Amino acid sequence: MKRSIYMFLGMLLLLPACTKDFLDINTDPNYASKTSENRLLTAAEQGLSYSLGFTNDNRGARGLTEVLSVYMHQVCVRESPDQYGADGNDINITGSWTDMYSSSPAQVGSDILGTLQNIETLISQGTTNGNLVYVGIAKIIKAYAISQFVDAFADVPYSEANKFLSAGIRYPKYDKGAEIYPQLFALLDEGIANLSADAPNTLVPAGDDLYYNGSTARWANLARTIKLKLYNQVRLVQNVSSQVAALEAENKMIGATGESFMFTYGRGTTPDDRNPGFNDYFASQRSHYMSPWFYEILKGYNKTIFTGNPDPRLPYYFYDQLLFDEEAQNSTDYRDSSFVAIPFGSVSVNRDFLQDESMTMFGIYPVGGRYQSDTAFVDASLATGAAPFRMLTYADRLYIEAELMISGVLPGDARAKLVAAMAESFVQVDFVVALASKQSGIPLLATGNTAVEEYTAKVLAAYDNGTTAKKLEIIMTQKWIQSFGNSVDQYADYRRTGYPILFDPNNRTMAPNGKLQPPLKGDPTIAGNQAAIPVQLSVGYPLSLPWSALDLNVNKNAPAQKLPASYPVFWDK
Question: pLDDT (tens digit, 9 = 90+) per residue, 67-99?
Fold first, then answer.
């Protein structure tokens, strides 16, 4: 079904673009503004996934996770996101912004408009045609997309965005996030109502709906789960107990793995239908190193959380190309037996050496890479790239409820909810493996797995012995681990709660004398100990992302560029 997206998109919006308004949030006068609702929906759904996920320039996909996976210390790169250095000219930020807001095909370098322009057209056209199921879905997507951008950028165009056709607005103002959020709750309620409204609905979604195949019940459940997520987001600045209680009493939210909000990628190569994060498996130069901080938490090396408790998900998350005693391609920065990476903030002489044939790669779970049942120099033929991009899952819902309970917003047993959330996290890995595996005999995690049972028991023992703050840290760190592959909500979670604890090169406990010590005997190919790695950081943690310089340069109603380390989102108190 997902392969059909390219057939739809290839037919979508085919007239040539006028370039005199290049980069405006505007509508190209040569754009074929009329196209059917089913094609608009397909384009919007794919565009949403592209704007939030990893970057793959070969497919024109540029997403926020490319930056935020570094900011959330699950991936390390040599490029500008290292040391929190992504500015408004970063191609991933400008690309994500343009792909979300563009009203001109010229802006995205193709015949496809931005997600929100397709959504606005879908709402208007579907309302006129009486196809209100499409309208309801479009409003839910719009509310989710805007909430993600508010959570990332703080203030964004909303009330005037993509309004050139309807209102002649060429240069939209930037609305305050605090003013936008209440409107999103209302928009979600409108979307739910539209799904079941008495209307002609001469055209209804089916295979063109790449998320739920036209199921109005699942879209309504998603909308209510998004509301739960947003209420949790604002709980520090607003009393949301009654709203959360009402949602829980209704109990019509995402309730199973298969109901999760995710974009299912395929295995096709012509055209490329794979997860954009799979790009490193066939790129001419590989760029995504697995974060040593993340690795050490999964290995049980971290001294403050899950110490001595190795995570059984590790072979599903990472793939090592080297045998434990095999020579690396070049001198390594950080090595632990077969694991080869560079740390955040490294200024080591080894940092920039080519390690394409040695570096640890994404595994099967985040992007559809290879499960660690062997070691080999990998290419695209050894894996599928068919892992879904997970945006809001059943596991996420359970972790959100656990956070609300431990924070006193929602009555209930936070420990029991954590148990359910962790169990669902392992089910979710098995779900992805079933979709993406090219290997046989991959062990299931969710059923009768002794390693999972032992790991869970040790996590719960730490939880039982912890303070309230430690219990929240355990909940949020488990949520961070399970969401590997999409870092947008991780970024919001960290700023809201302060968890998980992230690596700080300026912390003298984490990096004594400005140096990170890899495992002393981690490189079996050298005599003696591995050298400590010099690391540095000269800026504060970004409280929001910089706005796209492409928009600031042409939008006369845009604000001056912010200082990300001092510009929080309204709910960040």
Answer: 999 999 999 999 999 999 999 999 999 999 999
Q: Radius of gyration over alpha carbons of the chain, in Å?
A: 23
Identity (one letter) of the amino acid at 400? I
Residue 570 · residue 117 · CB < 8 Å: no
Residues 413-443 have pLDDT tens digits of: 999 999 999 999 999 999 999 999 999 999 9
Q: 367: which residues sit within 8 A by CB, 6+ positions away?
A: 54, 275, 276, 277, 278, 385, 387, 485
Residues 6 or more apart from 144 whose CB is under 8 A from it? 48, 226, 261, 391, 392
Using CB atoms within 10 Å of the CB of residue 556, give its burial: 0 to 12 exposed, 13 to 18 middle, 19+ buried: exposed
Q: At 504, is the secondary structure helix, strand, or coil? A: coil
Contact present, 562 and 546 (Cβ < 8 Å): yes
Q: Cα(448)–Cα(432) distance, rounded to whole angstroms?
A: 18
Q: Which two tokens stand for residue 233?
A: 């987001």
Question: What residues contact residue 182 under an 8 Å CB cut-off, 6+ apart?
Answer: none
Q: Please, what is the Cα angle at 50 between 46 and 53, to 5 degrees?
A: 130
Cα 344 → chain centroid: 19
Question: Contact 28/105 with Cβ under 8 angstroms?
Answer: yes
Backbone φ and ψ of 452, nearest 5°:
-65, -45
